[in-house]
UniProtKB/TrEMBL annotation:
Organism ancestry: Bacteria, Pseudomonadati, Bacteroidota, Flavobacteriia, Flavobacteriales
Name of the protein: VWA domain-containing protein
One Pfam family in the UniProt entry: VWA_2
Species annotation: Hwangdonia seohaensis
Domain VWFA residues, every copy: 27-206
Keywords: Signal
Keyword Signal among UniProt keywords: yes
Signal sequence, start to end: 1-19
InterPro entries registered for this protein in UniProt: VWF_A (IPR002035), vWFA_dom_sf (IPR036465)
Amino acid sequence: MKLLIPLFCALGLIFQTSAQEQKAPSPILFIYDASGSMWGQLDGKTKKEIASEVLATAVNNLPDNQNIGLMAYGHNKKGDCSDIEFLVDLQNASKSQITNAVSGMNALGKTPLARSAALAINSLKNSNTKATIILITDGIESCDGDICDVVSTAKTEGIDFKLHIVGFGLKESETEQLKCATDAGGGTYYDASNASGLSEGLTEATSQTIDDPKGNFSIFAAKNGKPVDAWVKIVKADTNKEVDGTRTYRDTGWVYLPPGKYKMIVNPLENTKIKGTTINIESIKDKIGHKTVSFDGGKINLLTLNNNEGWDATSKVKTQDGEVVGGSRTYGRTQTIEVNPGTYDIEVMGLRMKGLETKYTIEDVIVEPGKTIEVSHNFKTGIAMIGVKSGETLVDAVVSIKEKISGKNVAGSRTYTSNSSNPREFILNPGIYEVKVSAVKKEYAGKKETFTIEVKQGETATKIIHF
């Protein structure tokens, strides 16, 4: 019998661990707008029909162990600011009970947003329950309340909830109080102008629950001082593994990032002329991070030099992922390149010069919105003059030049028999080179010579071969 006791204890521990792993998520409470304005039409359907269908889809996509409650306002009486009712208790696990209640609901009354939020939050306080509240409304407060004040006060009292609001067909000028409420309630305001937008908003809202880790890094996207709706994806800097993501909805989006370095990929969901951008960010332990992503252009003033003097070169401006987003030929003068804000590598290649250092990458150039950054690179070269003669006669010959240590071919040409090309000028990076000269014409057939020559920065080394 004594042997069985440890076995039962072990089994009990296993069952307890299993039960903890299968613990149901905190409940979601929908507050549904059944005010008279829901009879208004969008795309040939009433907002009431659209909301009912979209909410049914969102509810049916929830996990089977998700408890779901429902509150509605305006569904019984016209002009009554107290027409607010709990229709389905938070302990409910039946999806059909929610969808049936919504589909059979009338739309009659006013829009008591503050009173509805207060009733919902007080129910959580009285039952000592934490929950995600999702308010769907097509109108603004019509009963002299302030939902932002209600939510802010509740948070100071320590009531544990997250509030999302999906604004259905609202004007931008009508959303200030709603955004204030979601900011205070640790959630997001989602703007929906049609069925698709409502679906996206509810999908996002039901996935960002009170059980998620609290966001510790915020993102705001803008262009010309105005908010931009954008999708944000966060990946680990070293592995590119996706960690988190959010949508800004022309507001502030939040993600949770453990301490470390990340790439933030931001793609606008409006104004197709705006290109996405990738920005390096870092999350620091016990600190709230923030990044404002401005799609206002920033400028790079690029200057390429050779031996401290202006020099012609080509350039490519690349994102951290290697995408070329800009470039220019410098012609030895400062060239201005405009790109989205972000961190870039600039690859420059000096023209007319030869050697192992004719290309250079200027790394991690940070471009900020509305600002200009000065960037330059100074190449180093010297000159080798290679000529071929027979007596006083110029000899046409092929010249091949290798960098001596690496053995890499870096330059080649012909001298011909003109004073303008014989001796032939080679602009080379400083170093020691192996030069092979081979005569071209029959009267000098078989004539060749190999030698080394040292090229120093800013100096000219001349070598004349005599056949």
